[in-house]
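Hi support team,

I submitted a single chain yesterday and got back a structure, but I'm not sure I'm reading the token output correctly. Could someone confirm the output below corresponds to the sequence I sent? I've pasted both exactly as they appear in my results page.

Thanks,
R.
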Amino acid sequence: MNAIEIILSIFIITGAFLSLLGSIGLIRFPDVYGRTHAATKSATLGVISIMVATFLFFLLVEGIFAGKILLAILFVFLTAPVAALMVARAAYRTGVPLWEKSGQDDLKKMYEKKLNEPQ
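Hi R., thanks for writing in. Yes, this is the structure output for that exact sequence:
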């Protein structure tokens, strides 16, 4: 086993582990807000890690520069957190309750201000 295979294996195993953690978080967290956090943070990093391994494989082993993979990494990196933010905000605005043991509600003040402002 040479150094390239070891590096690629590390990226793939790291990506698989992070994706597994995201899946466990989706099952274990008690509310939609924690679940979106688990899905975006760990799963996004897991997918990006596996895509980096794919890019490096094609670049170092096959000798092919796959720019589409770099664009896919950028696309996942930019869109997944924004999508999770929009899902969480939509859930909050439609009245999905926080977990009863949540410490604070940061959005409550902001939405109360907007409701009390004259339009």
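A quick pointer for reading it: Residues 38 and 94 are 21 Å apart (CA to CA). Let us know if anything else looks off.

Best,
Support desk
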